[in-house]
């Protein structure tokens, strides 16, 4: 081996390493492009390419540099060329797949690719140049040098992933910006990718790092003896450029939290700015959340912990921290997962947004934390290898079982039985592994929760904890999963369901999974934009956005309904009715969309004053659903008296050419209440909407008056009583809460709603009744 000075690199097209690397990249990306969501430029394609291309660029450049010992600047230049070539070919392969299956948003997808794996591949090539130089300096034997060059080259991309995992583990954040793979947005169910501006500013740091590497390479020469010499005095301009580029990279890193690139727990708590402690719960909340709302959530959190510990038969952590954000946008800015609620059991923390009372998912997220007390591994979750490979079916199933929806007409067992009868129930071997994410979310969560409840009833809480803690199911249950599944299915087949309940289940569960959808991220983003345009009165803009969406998926039911709404808001009722009729009669459309279209048609009739025709459709729809929320809304529309009553309902629920208006509706509801002092419906609606706006005391007054008058039976009165219980609990009025609870218990509630009522009443501090004390008793 020659240990002297520099040697020229082989021409780019003749380098075996380059040819091999390009071949591997093309084969890998071409093959992956046939997988769901990877066929064309977009977030998933960019993320996967970011895990592949930078590593290939680093290894290829390191092998060439280690074998030839080129001048440092030549090595860095080769790395840049390799990165650019791989990025260009990768983008070409991705675009060809997009042409094959149809492009979603080529502009955004290309930008994601360039800012993600594109610049990541260039950085990979540059860091690979450094690995090649280092291996040539340290190792003399060619084979050993190639091994060291490869390992050192891969250490850069791997180190980036390790840093992201450390940040995920040591802070609330669930997103990641990485110098090599680019951008990871967080949970799968947050389908809408936010602004790319943080990624663009992050890549300013990447470009500065590449420039700094090129500058330092230009300042280094290899002496005749092979040693590297730094000669800044010979090129002062280059030395200045190096300092400037390195400083820019350092500033981008230092200001990362402000730029949205990363955040620590301390950063987030400082940004939220407020704290209140209630019992075992510390609530760190946004300054936009009132102290009263934060304290109420803390009280609810403390009560949830006791119920969850009783369900699992285990003690949770001494203290739990709840980070309460004011909005999805605030939560997405600081930790990611704007639309997805998150818990990190190993940190004893949950992250939620909104101040609704009772909070819709607080119990579910706290169940993850309590279950973590008997889980193994660093993440305190169920799964193989001590939870290093999470089992989402167990993780989510335990939370659904322990904290089910408390205002649902059916239990999770009954919903699972409906899935089985409709042929929609997932197989357990799919649920209790990563295949969970291949199922529609509502279907997977419900089925997993129903099975966990069955498991607990059959085998007890100790067995439940052992299974979550990592013990093999066969060891715990003394039978395999298939045998348990057969017993579970036999139990589900014994559940009797009405046709209306089955129709409701089909509407709820017969929806495509994320990976079955076409362009889900682009479509969901466009749907959100169109909804905001409609809310702002930009009908033409909304129409254009829906048209753009329908160009991607002509059968998308949400966009078809949106186009009909645009026509109705523009005063073209004929076009709107035709669109509704076409969708309602479309046998290929999902059941929920056909139902919504039929109801929308009735809404137009109601708005035009054709009351009999509208009421006939509402009555028909009421026979086909068991959802109490839908039934209540249909009753409100159907039973509103003509004149001021219908006018108020139209402005509240349907809207005129300018859309619904609470301000106008509230005035009309007040007028209606003054005209007919025996009808409690207007005051119920006022109370309900005031509660939704956080006006608890005023809501309670209207609900109390409504309950003393005539209300549609049974759905509206049931809900009025439930809301009166909630407002009383929120205000700390135990006497009123007890009266409302007792009145509800005398109503003909389903078993699931009765169980939910008793759980909530217990958290409200009401004395446990015999029925409620049986709930959650360990086996």
Just name the CATH architecture of the domain at 265-509.
3-Layer(aba) Sandwich
Report the total helices: 34
The radius of gyration over CA amounts to 30 Å
Number of strands: 9
Identify the overall geometry.
Answer: globular
The largest pleated sheet is described as: 5 strands, mixed
| The CATH fourth-level homologous superfamily of the domain at 265-509 | Collagenase ColT, N-terminal domain
Fraction in helix: 55-70%
Q: Structural class of the secondary structure composition?
A: mainly alpha
**What portion of residues belong to β-strands?**
under 5%
CATH level 3 topology of the domain at 265-509: Glutaredoxin
Give the distance, in angstroms, between the N- and C-terminal Cα atoms: 74 Å
What's the assembly state of these chains?
single chain
Topology readout:
Blueprint: H1 16-32, H2 43-68, H3 72-101, H4 106-138, H5 142-170, E1 176-178, E2 182-184, H6 197-218, E3 220-222, E4 228-230, H7 236-254, H8 256-259, H9 265-272, E5 273-278, E6 281-286, H10 291-312, E7 320-325, H11 328-335, E8 342-344, E9 349-353, H12 362-371, H13 392-402, H14 412-422, H15 428-431, H16 441-468, H17 473-477, H18 481-493, H19 499-509, H20 520-535, H21 539-552, H22 557-569, H23 573-584, H24 591-608, H25 611-622, H26 628-639, H27 644-654, H28 662-675, H29 681-692, H30 696-707, H31 715-731, H32 734-745, H33 751-763, H34 770-774
Helix pairs in contact: 1-2, 1-3, 2-3, 2-4, 2-5, 3-4, 3-6, 4-5, 4-6, 6-7, 10-12, 12-13, 13-16, 14-16, 14-19, 20-21, 20-22, 21-22, 22-23, 22-24, 23-24, 24-25, 24-27, 25-26, 27-28, 28-29, 29-30, 29-31, 30-31, 31-32, 32-33
